[in-house]
Amino acid sequence: MSASRRSGTTDELGPDEPGEPEEPGGSDLLAALLDGMDAALCAFDADGVVTHWNREAERILGWTAAEAVGRHGFAGWAVRSADAEEVQARLMSAMHAPGRQVHEFALVTKDGGRVLVRTQSAAVRGPEGKPAGVYCAFSEVHAQIDLERSIALSEALFEDAAWGVVLIDADLRPAVVNAHAARALGIGRTSALGRPLGELLAQGVEELEAVLTHVLAEGAPPAPAEMWVTLRTAEGEQRRCWRSGFVRLASPLAEEPVPLGVGWLFQDVTDVKQGEQEAALLRFRGNQLHRAARAAAECEDPLEVATVHLDFALAGFADHALIDRVMPSPRAKAREDGRADGAEEGFEDGADTAVRLVRLAATPAGAPGPSLLTGAAGLPVRYEPGHPALQCVERAGAVRADAGSVPAERAREWALARQWPGDAVHALCAVLRSRGRTLGVVTFLRGSGRHRFERSDTAYAEDVAVRIAAALDLAEAVRGAQGGRNAARGGPK
User: Fold this and answer.
1) Whose CA is closest to 454, among 388, 398, 397?
2) pTM
């Protein structure tokens, strides 16, 4: 028996009229449609007799179509006797009411159990528009609640979620974008739809597309991934870190899983990641200063102490480094020689003499290695007026310089003109001061593969400069003491 009174479901409510012609295949088509529905469906004629009963109704309650069709209402088999009258009245009331009516009933299964169902019932009109019966679609309440929860979750994700949600189709283009994701991308929710990801992101597109392709083919990764992307904004490009999760979306209606796309959920963790990176950098630099101090304590020559501090500072900080010593002018030297106390060399703040610098130490320009002491001849470095190292000495403060966004050849000319290695594009000069005097300048240089120097880099360079300046001051004191002993030995007894 099919889902109607007879073999093959009828295409109208009520008993078959004898002698009526029937469209070939019409009842079979209707039976197939009813039996293929995901919701349980039954129908009553105007007298409350069951005329239709599909397979989903049989699955939920256990009553077959042969057992259900032809019964008058649910009394005595699908509902308790005490509830039968009320249930029947509420169902049949839909025949004279506009629209659909929603009710919840406790129905009885064939094995005697009870199941709570949610029904939607509406009138069925005859050829003249008069009510001819009622159809009733029902499902288990927990299944309906699960569906409503899924819909509510989707609506909440795309309206009120505190993280970005983007549905990516199988062509790797956004299909749905929630409000949070639109703000993060700096674009409208509708204007992002259907556009290639390369139009939304300046950098990081290849990595994101690779992940999406993997999810479509293999499924969701076991843990969230942190991805760095660069956004195009009105203020310029901004680099952001998004902690992202991915899920593969497959159609529940297909016999085999057919990927519909990827659900991409992300949260901006740029501030957290930058804080972690800065903390790690500070720990590393603190460890370097500590290790440099331990190594410098074993050096006999104070000038070697200066190069030790320079070498430890270079790790992860710069590609090249230079130490230039202030050389007093002849006039200042003559004044110092005439002093009875034998004042030491240095650049006095406010002196009316031109600044001249002598290269004291430098890292090898061609290959990595320890810093080398230079400048034995005492010849001044050919710095042009306005050179960053000269400005640093004159201001007694740090100076940063950059080649800017220029071709490689222009950047090389910029570095060579300043007496720096040809691959330098970023410079940071820190003054060497000890006991109120400027002793020189230390210059750190970075190549094109590194970022420009920031304020945090300046603070670290100044810490290193303090230690180098103390070593140079000690070297002068030791040299002065040795000179005094030598003079005492060679003098009259």
Assistant:
1) 398
2) 0.61
Q: Which residue has the higher pLDDT, 429 or 341?
A: 429
Instruction: Supply the DSSP string of 433-464, one letter for each residue.
Output: EETTEEEEEEEEEE-TTSPPP-HHHHHHHHHH
CA distance 213 to 221: 12
Q: How far is CA 175 from CA 171, 172, 192, 211, 231, in A?
A: 10, 9, 8, 17, 19
Strand ranges, E, within 29-171:
40-45, 50-53, 101-108, 114-125, 131-140, 164-169
Which residue(s) pair with 131 in the sheet?
Answer: 125
Strands (E), 286-406: 320-326, 357-362, 372-373, 399-402
Residue 306's closest CA among 84, 420, 472, 456? 472
> Where do runs of H (alpha helix) occur along 338-454?
388-395, 408-417
Q: Which long-range contacts (CB under 8 A, 24 or more apart) does 336-343 make?
A: 342/480, 342/484
Residues contacting 236, CB < 8 A, separation 6+: none
For 410-428, the pLDDT digits (tens) are 999 999 999 999 999 999 9
Amino acid 461 reads: A
Helix (H) or strand (E) holding 217: helix 205-218
Residue 86: the pLDDT is 87
What pLDDT does residue 405 have?
Answer: 84
Report residue 174 as tokens.
Answer: 């956004």
Nearest partner of 69 among 44, 93, 95, judged by Cα: 44
Residue 250 burial (10 A CB sphere; 0-12, 13-18, 19+): middle
Q: How far is CA 19 from CA 16, 22, in A?
A: 9, 9
Q: Which two tokens stand for residue 385?
A: 């007026």
What's the CA angle centered on 138, arms 137 and 141, to 5 degrees?
A: 155
3-state helix, strand, coil in the chain (%, to 5): 35, 25, 35
What is the largest distance, in Å, between two alpha-carbon atoms of the chain? 152
**Is 79 strand, coil or helix?**
strand
Helix, strand or coil for residue 321?
strand
